[in-house]
Amino acid sequence: MRYEELAENPDAAAERVAAFLHTEPEPLAGGFREVHSRSVGRWRRELDDVQLADIEQEAGGLLRELGYTER
Question: What is the pTM for the complete model shown?
């Protein structure tokens, strides 16, 4: 699940995760509602080239698998 999905619709995200975990969604939804949509895209504003290169080296494959585009 992408962070953007969680920020956009925390209740739907809780339903999805709860179904996967075979549990009730409400406890998850309560926590998920604390997610701030203002954090979406924050990496573009706050990380420098060295930090982005480190992240790409460590998690680049997973990021591409999840649909995140390269810088």
Answer: 0.67
